[in-house]
Amino acid sequence: MAETQPSMDTNVDTSQMQVSDEVAITIEGMNKWYGAFHVLRDINLTVNRGERIVICGPSGSGKSTLIRCINALEEHQQGKITVDGTLLSSDLKNIDKIRSEVGMCFQHFNLFPHLTILENCTLAPIWVRKTPKKEAEETAMHFLEKVKIPDQANKYPGQLSGGQQQRVAIARSLCMRPRIMLFDEPTSALDPEMIKEVLDTMIELAEEGMTMLCVTHEMGFARQVANRVIFMDQGQIVEQNEPEEFFNNPKSERTQLFLSQILGH
Amino acid sequence: MSDTHAHSVAFVRTETLPQLPPPVGERGAVKWMRENLFSTIPNGILTLVALYVIYRFAAFALPWIANGIWNTDSLAECREVLDGTTGACFSVISERWNQLLFGFSYPSELYWRPALAFVLLFFAAAPVMFFDLPRKLLIFTALYPFIAFWLIWGGTILTPLFALVGIVVGYLVYSRYVRDSFAMGFFGGVLAALIFWWLSGYVTAALAPEEPFLEAVQSRDMGGFMLNMILGVVCVSLSLPLGIVLALGRQSSMPIIKWICVIFIEFIRGVPLITLLFVANVVLAYFLPPGTTFDLILRVIIMITMFSSAYIAEVIRGGLAALPKGQYEAADSLGLDYAQAMRLIILPQALKISIPGIVNVAVGLFKDTTLVSVISMFDLVGMIRGPILSSTDWNGVYWELFMAASVLFFVVCYGISQYSQWLERRLATDHR
């Protein structure tokens, strides 16, 4: 995948992106409570390899919680989650294995401020994958070039702009060669100018066939990249559809209201 | 200005104005004094009052110090030399210097041993304090405790050697079993080390030569500033790792570990250090099997270490709490296990935040080592209050002696403080 030179053209032809029949994630009958509060209710979802799913919904609808359950940052109390053929259990080794296969990007980047950009990227491969340092650094530089900031490799996160930091966070995840990427509102903490550079990086990833689950309010991105859009409200999946259908012809009233509010201006 | 047009708003500058120096009152010492010393009338008055106080103090202290006598053998002789003029009898310091440093019963022909241990301390501490130095130097740091013990206490080399081998044995057992489970590796390692030490006690007793290479010195002969340094260095270096463990344990999701740590910390913090030292001195003997000799210095080290580790644990807990939750999540999401996440991500940042607090505890601990003088150990303060002041030669020389003690402690504590400030600047990566 290193050789593909992705175009910066934002009008990506999504039909070329292949979705295989192989299943990447299945979630069956998943329920989660915060104390007595029922935050996720009967979630059923199957994600195929290469699929790009955008999850949207009002705040507090449980969309972040849902994707955080997939790599066990949040515990679920009921139901089954299978990631890459591995059933998520409470066993720590099992959880660490799944986490090393699933990359995640956060709203606030969560780079490690005491390490340089390069060290941020090589840390997990060296310690989790036991990659030799030199090889890990080569991989890290490769992905830093991909997100177009190889020249910042020896700086510290605090010296970079928000957009650059988020691209480093993406590169850091990619260095683990994940098969699935989770994005938890990756552009919500960014200035409008920087949103584009991060979205472009994500679009490139999508073009290469990465399985992606993305919580975002960027509806343009959803329209362009996603092959499924999921709308959540009050801890439930209310509607899911192909982006064209979802935006032009939403079925449920709640979805119509949500779309009219965020696309209304 | 010739080039401005009085009747028009439009304006074009045609020539650059030359740079001029600021007016006389706005530069140099005059400006500094006006701004900092005499900015308002009350401030001016305060400045004058402060200058007068400083003058009065200096007028008394400077001649006293400058006129000091350094080479007499007793207070009476010193007063004779002074002959009624103002002057300090510093000769108590020069005459009793060795006692102040090493106590009164450490054999004087062996002073070179603790002195050498002190010099080596700098070499052992350097790679820990300045991490740009080559990592291989840490091997000497690891060996230093055993070398220093052998130098200061002397006796057969088998004792420190077996202590070292015991640790190695414990570590080997630990690394053999840690893959199965951490608890098994940990307790297996501790158990192996204890068994080894217990057995090696008999070997040492059987093999120890009558005349060891380094003459043995008993713990009760330790004293002076050396005792403060031993207690300070050992307790600080033990209480930091123990404090980290307690702080992490207090955050543990396992209730038993969490409550053990909470109870330990809260109990130790709720008890005065002096009480713990009395416990170490007297009460602990009741709990030990009769006939066991448990070194007093070791007992004191255990108590001071427990005391300061509880404080350090709370300081580090503050550092841990100050880290954003996202740091834990990012470490988790990359697949790092608990030990890796703590060692590589969480602790480096939490400890950095905690540096001022840890240094605070360390400096306080170092000064608190003088409390051992109340359980009749002759540390620096114990030496001054006991043998020196009660001697007929130097009865009544309070100022000079306590000034000397203050200077010794100040040098060390100020050094620690300066180092910590350098360390904070060195580790600052956020606003470069």
From TrEMBL, chain A:
Nucleotide-binding as a keyword of this entry, yes or no, is yes
Q: Which residues form the ABC transporter domain?
A: 25-259
Q: Which domain of life does the UniProt lineage start with?
A: Bacteria
Keywords attached to this Swiss-Prot or TrEMBL record, sorted alphabetically, are: ATP-binding, Nucleotide-binding, Transport
Q: Which residues form a coiled coil?
A: none
Question: Which GO MF term does the entry hold, naming one?
Answer: ABC-type amino acid transporter activity
- Pfam family name, one: ABC_tran
Q: Say if the entry is tagged with keyword Nucleotide-binding.
A: yes
- InterPro entries the UniProt entry points to: AAA+_ATPase, ABC_ATPase_HisP-typ, ABC_transporter-like_ATP-bd, ABC_transporter-like_CS, MetN_ABC_transporter-like, P-loop_NTPase
| Family membership noted in the UniProt record | Belongs to the ABC transporter superfamily.
Q: What is this protein called?
A: L-glutamine ABC transporter ATP-binding protein /L-glutamate ABC transporter ATP-binding protein /L-aspartate ABC transporter ATP-binding protein /L-asparagine ABC transporter ATP-binding protein
Instruction: Give the source species.
Output: Yoonia litorea
From TrEMBL, chain B:
Principal subcellular localisation of the protein: membrane
Q: Does the keyword Disulfide bond apply?
A: no
The GO terms describing molecular function are: transmembrane transporter activity
Q: Which GO terms fall under biological process for this protein?
A: amino acid transport
Q: Name one GO cellular component term.
A: ATP-binding cassette (ABC) transporter complex
ABC transmembrane type-1 domain location, by residue? 225-420
Name the SUPFAM superfamilies on file. Answer: MetI-like
Does this UniProt record's set of keywords contain Zinc?
Answer: no
Q: Which InterPro entries does the UniProt record give?
A: AA_ABC_transptr_permease_3TM (IPR010065), ArtM/GltK/GlnP/TcyL/YhdX-like (IPR043429), MetI-like (IPR000515), MetI-like_sf (IPR035906)
Question: Any idea where this protein resides?
Answer: Cell inner membrane; Cell membrane
Extract the Gene3D superfamilies matched here: MetI-like
Record field: transmembrane: 41-66, 110-130, 137-153, 159-175, 182-205, 225-248, 260-284, 296-316, 353-378, 398-417
Q: Which NCBIfam families does this entry report, sorted A to Z?
A: HEQRo_perm_3TM (TIGR01726)
**PANTHER family listed in its UniProt record:** INNER MEMBRANE AMINO-ACID ABC TRANSPORTER PERMEASE PROTEIN YHDY, MEMBRANE COMPONENT OF AMINO ACID ABC TRANSPORTER
Q: Which family does it belong to?
A: Belongs to the binding-protein-dependent transport system permease family. HisMQ subfamily.
Can you say what this protein is called? L-glutamine ABC transporter membrane protein /L-glutamate ABC transporter membrane protein /L-aspartate ABC transporter membrane protein /L-asparagine ABC transporter membrane protein
This chain's source organism reads Yoonia litorea
Lineage of the source organism? Answer: Bacteria, Pseudomonadati, Pseudomonadota, Alphaproteobacteria, Rhodobacterales
